[in-house]
Design brief:
The complex is a heterodimer of chains A (178) and B (315). Chain A is α+β, with helices and mostly antiparallel strands. In chain A, 21% of the residues lie in helices and 35% in strands. The two termini of chain A are 24 Å apart. Chain B has one domain: Methylamine Dehydrogenase, Chain H. The chains are: A alpha+beta (178), B mainly beta (315).
Chain lengths: 178, 315
């Protein structure tokens, strides 16, 4: 739950008026994990865009169900009435066991990023089991020059990395290490 | 003797022809995440060298004479490099320098200021600041027209482009385009193609009149535009594809899969090959412009953006 607190850290920061612009340098994060279950079993658990309950930071997934392109989900974090993240699906391929989504709306106090997009993919692992990969591309939370430390490039990368690692720790616990 | 030297001339020409089937072009790819410039031999399809460029370089422009301009938004430094990547000049700016374009006729470079709604006009040799131009909000991509008449700026947060006459640098027109234009380029025929990341389309503009000639739907988050063989090639960042637009019909005739987060795009000097920087994959894809197929891939360093013109012959 330490990661969860990291994710949900409230910065208590009054931001100056922002432009619509984003930071100058897009960041990327790739986190992978290996689990003992075969890819079909893992995809069964995580391949539904409208069910993020496998992630320990997510209390509830709200949405209209289905995995159609442009489908929108709202993640309620931590507890009933907790902070929310609104995301939309822009690629979905059940055969390749991958989907891609972007964040449409999140407070930078919840996740210090903007223009965030992400791919979640399950692949077979050499020697059995599954390789799960989560990739994110995003700008820092502060769109202007000279960001405060809480909203700089490093803070954005650290927050997304801990978000992915928390999810994957839960998958390893559930499916076992290979 | 005359006969013999003539024959030798033919043999030499054939041999030369064989080694220059491709154009002798090199790609100068800015890698934003690793803060390096990858120099790629496009004929041999392999990297030649990787040169450190501090400050998260994104924008790039070549002058066609072996020099390369890079823009590092984090450190706000613009550099002029030789064909090996050695620094010939550099200037420390402020604000948020991002896009860059080269003006051969007046030996100038233009650099957009993402944060302060302006363009720096720099001396191409010394990088000394000559003057500033006022833009709309968050100018990003810049392009100079091949006929030497216009400079255009994609003013992202104003949903417009600013078009300046290169002669005198006066503001000529400010046409409205789609939502959040970021990359843009003049076609060889003089029309201006603007990629709108918010509306997933390309606005085609007559720069003289400022009129919109067409709005062409492309893929998700279009970013960069290049031209070859009577076609426009548009990178779609979120779709991991390149849309090919027929310049006569102004409609998409093909969509190609490339690497992940394709961004910068440019054409070899002989017009045969289009090169796409795949920001997430750390590669460039090589597209045969005639057959509209991906024919190769070359490794880059981490996070290739190549935002601008980045291919030229090496002198």
């Amino acid at each position: 739950m330490r990661q969860l607190r990291n994710i949900l850290v409230v910065l208590g920061l009054i931001l100056p008026t922002m432009t619509l612009a984003h930071g100058p340098s897009r960041q990327k994060v790739t986190v992978t994990t290996e689990v003992a279950a075969d890819p079909a079993a893992v995809w069964e658990a995580i391949g539904n865009f409208h069910d993020m309950n496998w992630h320990p930071a997510v209390f509830e997934t709200q949405g209209d169900g289905g995995n159609a392109i442009d489908s929108i989900r709202t993640l309620v974090l931590a507890e009933a009435g907790g902070p929310t993240v609104t995301e939309s699906l822009y690629k979905y391929d059940a055969d390749k066991m991958t989907y891609s989504y972007r964040i449409d709306d999140v407070a930078v106090e919840v996740l210090p990023v903007t223009n965030y997009s992400s791919h979640l993919t399950v692949k077979p692992r050499d020697g059995g089991g599954s390789l799960v990969e989560w990739r994110g591309a995003f700008y820092r939370g502060y769109p202007n020059n000279d960001p405060p430390a809480e909203l700089n490039d490093e803070a954005a990368v650290a927050a997304v990395t801990s978000l992915y690692e928390a999810g994957f720790a839960a998958l390893v616990e559930r499916f076992g290490a290979p | 003797m005359a006969h013999r030297s003539h024959a030798f001339g033919i043999v030499a020409a054939l041999a030369l022809g064989a080694t220059t089937v491709a154009a002798g072009d090199f790609a100068y790819v800015t890698n934003q995440n690793s803060e390096e410039l990858s120099i790629l031999d496009l004929d041999a399809r392999k990297p030649v060298s990787v040169v450190p460029i501090p400050g998260k370089p994104a924008g790039v422009a070549v002058d066609g004479a072996g020099h390369v301009y890079t823009v590092s938004p984090d450190s706000k430094v613009v550099r002029r490099l030789d064909s090996d990547g050695a620094v010939l000049a550099e200037v420390q700016l402020d604000g948020g320098p991002i896009g860059v374009a080269y003006d051969a006729d007046h030996s100038r470079v233009f650099v957009s200021d993402w944060y302060n709604a302006r363009i720096w006009v720099l001396d191409a040799r010394t990088l000394g600041v000559l003057r500033m131009l006022e833009t709309g909000s968050a100018p990003a991509g810049l392009s100079v027209s091949g006929d030497g008449r216009w400079l255009a700026s994609a003013d992202r947060d104003s949903d417009q482009v600013s078009i300046y006459a290169l002669e005198g640098l006066t503001l000529h027109r400010r046409p409205t385009v789609g939502t959040r234009p970021f990359g843009l380029r003049f076609a060889p025929d003089g029309r201006l193609f603007v990629a709108n990341v918010g509306t997933n389309d390309v606005t085609v503009i007559d720069p003289q009149s400022g009129e919109t000639l067409a709005t062409v739907p492309v893929g998700e988050r279009p970013y960069g535009v290049a031209f070859a063989r009577g076609r426009a090639f548009v990178t779609n960042q979120y779709a991991d594809t390149v849309s090919v637009i027929d310049l006569a019909g102004l409609a998409v005739i093909e969509t190609l899969d490339v690497g992940e987060y394709p961004e910068g795009i440019d054409t070899t000097s002989d017009g045969t090959t289009v090169v796409v920087a795949n920001w997430f994959s750390n590669t460039v894809s090589l597209i045969d412009a005639a057959t509209m197929t991906v024919v190769g891939e070359i490794e880059t360093a981490d996070g290739p953006r190549a935002f601008g013109t980045f291919i030229q012959q090496r002198n």
